[in-house]
Design goal:
Elements lengths: L8 E7 L53 E10 L17 E15 H7 L1 E4 L2 E3 L17 E3 L2 E9 L7 E5 L7 E2 L3 E2 L10 E10 L7 H4 L6 E13 L1 E2 H7 E5 L3 E2 L17 E2 L4 E9 L4 E6 L9 E3 L1
Parallel strand pairs: 8-10, 11-19
Antiparallel strand pairs: 1-2, 1-9, 2-3, 3-6, 3-7, 4-5, 4-8, 5-16, 11-12, 12-17, 13-16, 14-15, 14-18
Length: 309
């Protein structure tokens, strides 16, 4: 991956034993992001170093918490493979990329922790790391670590819906402790927190929430069941909906249709939906089937009440 210019968001993230800060700068991106003032920050004081000692290990500070590493990060939104960065083609038509570039200033950042436990937060969702990250230059991988004075690049799918405003890098579920300007450390501390859901179901041959090219991928005797999930409290891990949800009719149970990810506020296989927001799940059923309800299989990983509206 080739970086052609500076990115549109600058933040500083600490991960255990280090502190740091950053200031914003602007680039050519059409979307500009600024760090939230409510975001926890690290101590801007520089830690003393001894060139004879370990130069990249955890730094000690006189005040504030210790962290595992300190990083500067920038964020750029790109709507195609070509732009400020050379990137893979987006997953679906109309999708783009949210590019997070991390520079480790001190300590060491575990890439598996980023891959599985870190998210980029928007106003509506927590976006999971895209597997295409490992295909780009300096891309984050599912193992290994990033050492001090080195970089890592993280890609997040950025579909047209919900293309809500970027907020910042959310590391609250990570095993490593994280702090600093631009980091979001408050949020779910586990991947499968309790969640309270409400849902409603409608049926249509060509639902408005689904692009025509996907809506027409059905047999003549099939219709779409559109389940609108509302997160009443907590965070919904969409993995449960993608892999372990079922729509129950009088004669069958139906698994989620993967076309759901292309829908308006569509469910994805990874990532979370924040409290007060919605996600759309679609199921193909027979036109003569009677819907009895929606729910999960017994191996669901999130607990909490589910109510039909």
């Amino acid at each position: 991956m080739h970086r052609r210019s500076f990115l549109s968001l600058v933040g500083v993230t600490c991960v255990a034993g280090c502190t740091g800060d950053g200031d914003g700068s602007s680039g050519k991106s059409t979307d500009t992001v600024t760090s939230s003032s409510s975001t926890p920050t690290g101590t801007p004081e520089e830690s003393p170093t001894d060139p004879e000692d370990e130069p990249t290990t955890v730094a000690e500070t006189a005040s504030g918490p210790n962290f595992d590493a300190v990083v500067d990060y920038t964020v750029h939104i790109q709507d195609s493979a070509d732009g400020e960065y050379d990137l893979p083609e987006p997953r679906n038509e109309g999708w783009g990329w949210l590019v997070l570039e991390i520079s480790v200033a001190g300590g060491e950042l575990e890439m598996a922790d980023i891959w599985f436990n870190a998210f980029f937060e928007t106003k509506e969702r927590l976006l999971a790391v895209a597997h295409e990250s490992e295909k780009v230059e300096d891309g984050v991988m599912s193992s290994g670590s990033i050492r001090a004075d080195s970089q890592g690049v993280v890609l997040h799918d950025y579909p047209p819906s919900p293309r809500s405003e970027p907020v910042g890098w959310n590391v609250s579920p990570m095993d490593q402790t994280v702090g600093g300007d631009g980091v979001i450390a408050d949020g779910p501390t586990e991947l499968y927190p309790s969640v309270s859901l409400e849902y409603s179901v409608e049926t249509a041959k060509n639902p408005d929430v689904l692009p025509d090219e996907y809506a027409n991928r059905r047999n003549e005797n099939e219709i779409w069941a559109v389940v609108t999930l509302s997160v009443a409290d907590g965070h919904l891990n969409m993995e449960d909906v993608w892999f372990r949800s079922r729509l129950v009719t009088g004669s069958r149970t139906h698994d989620l249709a993967h076309a759901s990810e292309t829908a308006t506020r569509g469910v994805r296989s990874r990532g979370m939906v924040k409290s007060g927001n919605q996600a759309t799940a679609l199921y193909l059923i027979g036109a003569d089937e009677t819907i009895e309800g929606w729910g999960y299989t017994e191996d669901r990983r999130q607990d909490g009440p589910i109510a039909q509206l």
